[in-house]
């Protein structure tokens, strides 16, 4: 399996581990960076024209937003243990954080606008829900969903898919600015596995197959989804976690299911092949 141009491998063990920018991805809206910090290490930045969602993937940090101490946040030491702490910082803001344990911090970004104040997003703000059934069951925790009115562009969610299951399935896409039928959203997936030697697969493909890649997923990989369908499967014995960042011209998540697999939603049974 050739290395996919959609797959971003970790480039370091500490500090800035992975990064996707609109320039590196060749798109317009979504930015993603993953920092792994030793206890005592600090990170600070200004948001500029972007809005930012900090997601504490694991560990604890002390956080300051616009010079105001937010205290120590963080509970889980693994993304597979409970809900996340997060924080939103609008354009023109700044933040500084210091790891108080080993910590993994995701920086999710997109073009911003005035009118959305900075805030902490503690665990339980949006309850974890179960989506799908059978081997398509997964656990979804919204961090910044479309109906919370908290941002101009960003949509952020994390998902845990049990070993042997599928997710982002049946296949769907959101690459057309055609509201109310479908919205145009770029998307990144930050993948983790438990235990970490696990792996999975993600197919990214369009109706005309001008884009059709199967991406090998290993612990720490980031997958870019510029367009097309993008289902995920993890192998037996290894749970998969992913953190999704989406953004586009409108902060609306309206997706289009692949017609060939629409019957999986209807429960009417598989269509008979034409003869």
When the domains are counted, the total is 1
The H/E string reads EEHEEEEEEEEEEEEEEEEEEEEEEEH
CATH class: Mainly Beta
* CATH topology annotation: Jelly Rolls
CATH superfamily: Jelly Rolls
Looking at how many chains there are and whether they match, the oligomeric state comes to: single chain
Please provide the count of β strands. Answer: 25
Helicity, as a percent range: under 10%
Indicate the CATH architecture: Sandwich
Description:
The chain has two helices and 25 strands. It has a seven-stranded antiparallel sheet, with no helix packed on it. 3% of the residues lie in helices and 48% in strands. It has a single domain (7-261), classed as Jelly Rolls, CATH 2.60.120. With 275 residues, it is mainly beta. The protein has helices at 22-25, 263-266; strands spanning 7-8, 15-20, 31-37, 42-46, 50-58, 61-65, 68-73, 85-89, 94-99, 103-111, 119-121, 129-131, 138-144, 155-161, 166-167, 172-173, 175-178, 182-184, 186-194, 199-205, 212-218, 222-225, 232-234, 239-247, 256-257.
């Amino acid at each position: 399996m050739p290395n996919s141009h959609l797959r971003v491998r970790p480039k370091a063990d500490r500090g800035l581990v992975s990064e996707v920018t609109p320039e590196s991805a060749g798109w317009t809206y979504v930015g993603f960076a993953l920092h792994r910090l030793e206890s005592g290490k600090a990170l600070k930045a200004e948001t500029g024209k972007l809005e930012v969602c900090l997601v504490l993937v694991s560990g604890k940090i002390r956080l300051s937003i616009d010079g105001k101490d937010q205290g120590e946040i963080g509970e889980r030491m693994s993304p597979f243990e409970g809900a996340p702490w997060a924080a939103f910082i609008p354009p023109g803001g700044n933040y500084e954080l210091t790891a108080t344990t080993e910590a993994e911090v995701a920086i999710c970004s997109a073009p911003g606008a005035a009118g959305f104040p900075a805030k902490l997003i503690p665990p339980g703000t949006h309850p974890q829900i179960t989506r799908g059934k059978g081997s398509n069951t997964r656990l979804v925790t919204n961090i910044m969903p479309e109906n919370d009115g908290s941002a101009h562009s960003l949509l952020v969610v994390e998902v845990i898919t049990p070993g042997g299951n599928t997710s982002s399935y049946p296949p769907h896409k959101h690459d057309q600015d055609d509201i109310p039928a479908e919205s145009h959203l770029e998307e990144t997936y930050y993948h983790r596995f438990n235990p970490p030697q696990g792996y999975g697969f993600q197919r990214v493909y369009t109706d005309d197959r001008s884009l059709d890649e199967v991406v090998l997923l290993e612990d720490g990989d980031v997958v870019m989804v510029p367009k097309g369908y993008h289902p995920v499967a993890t192998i037996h014995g290894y749970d998969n976690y992913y953190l999704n960042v989406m953004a586009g011209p409108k902060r609306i998540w309206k997706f289009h299911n692949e017609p060939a697999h629409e019957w999986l939603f209807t429960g009417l049974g598989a269509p008979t092949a034409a003869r």
